[in-house]
Specification:
This protein has helices spanning about 45-50, 95-105, 110-120, 135-150, 165-185, 195-200, 220-225, 230-235, 250-255; strands at about 5-10, 20-25, 30-35, 60-65, 65, 80, 155-160, 185-190, 205-210, 210-215, 240-245, 270, 275-280, 285-295, 300-305, 310-315, 325-330, 335-340. The protein has about 350 residues and is α+β, with helices and mostly antiparallel strands. It is globular and about 75 Å long. It starts with a strand and ends in a 7-residue tail after the last strand. Bound molecules: adenosine-5'-triphosphate and magnesium ion. Adenosine-5'-triphosphate (ATP) binds next to α1. Magnesium ion binds next to α1.
Amino acid sequence: MASVEFIGVEKVFPGGVTALADFSVTVPDGEFVVLVGPSGCGKSTSLRILAGLEEPTGGRVRIGDRDVTSLSPQDRDVAMVFQNYALYPHMTVFDNMAFALRMRKTPRVEVARRVEEAAAILDMTPLLGRKPRELSGGQRQRVALGRAIVRKPAVFLFDEPLSNLDARLRVQMRGELARLHSRLRVTMIYVTHDQAEAMTLGDRIVVLKDGRIQQIAAPMELYDRPVNSFVAGFIGSPAMNFLPLDSPGSGLAGVASAGQTPPEGAVLVGIRPEDVVPSPQGALECTCEVVEVFGNEKIIHLRTADGNLLVVRVEPSTPASIGGGARVDFRRGRCHFFGRAGERL
Ligand SMILES: Nc1ncnc2c1ncn2[C@@H]1O[C@H](COP(=O)(O)OP(=O)(O)OP(=O)(O)O)[C@@H](O)[C@H]1O
Ligand SMILES: [Mg+2]
């Protein structure tokens, strides 16, 4: 078990691409941290630097009380699970999981003990004799996890490990990862571009954009108090609505209906879909353009009289029809305000 520290890490690739700039994160021992951000923002690069697969062009990396910046990957005591988990096709599940231990000349009895233990944790015991082609996608993913678990690393690194799975399996494996963490209590660093995975798995979330950290916070802090309009728009689904504050029929009317006053310098108001409420006397007059029925909720896309789009989450019983009119208010005190540079005000 160990803590992890990135201290002012920088990575500039040959050719001048800055993948990470001034990247500083401290992960206490046993924490589950999720790095999230759009494609190309530097997520994999940060994990590869921690694993020793890539050398930073600046800064230091520490694992536990050791500076590992110039240590080779095998001396770092980390195990990485990748998106394409590349199992050895001709080996059984047992042999796939045992492979790294045998390479290290671990005694036979110890290998068997660790593989059986990992298989039990992952509910894979009956499958140990099978080959990867005889497994479902989710089961293969569990073998990849098993390969990491048997090594008993100080730190687990996950690079989008669930993105090859279908939506249902992804949710199931998400639950299994959460259980795995609460059982092992090992430091885990998990990379994803999926904000739902980040919110549900992370003790804390690091939001990255263009190689720069935007915010580090616990999930609900991130959701309730995003530091800028990028984080506000990235976390949450459907995304937060943004309206210009110079639009009297939508932005300004909405803010007034919430009983708020925009702070000095605010140019945008942000309002989450669940914080827009239909009401017969609502201050915003809209037309309904799209209705999405999910069973447990309805998502309605409204067009305000002055032309802005407003996505609203409502009870499934709320009446809504395409082309129909609707009036809405913003929930009291729920407006987020942003300045010209996107900063939270
Ligand atoms: N070996 C390399 N040489 C040059 N540029 C690279 C190299 N590897 C990555 N990059 C660039 O560095 C940036 C960050 O890449 P990285 O793979 O860390 O992104 P990511 O956040 O993991 O994206 P994704 O979600 O698509 O996996 C990108 O602009 C990428 O093109
Ligand atoms: Mg990546």
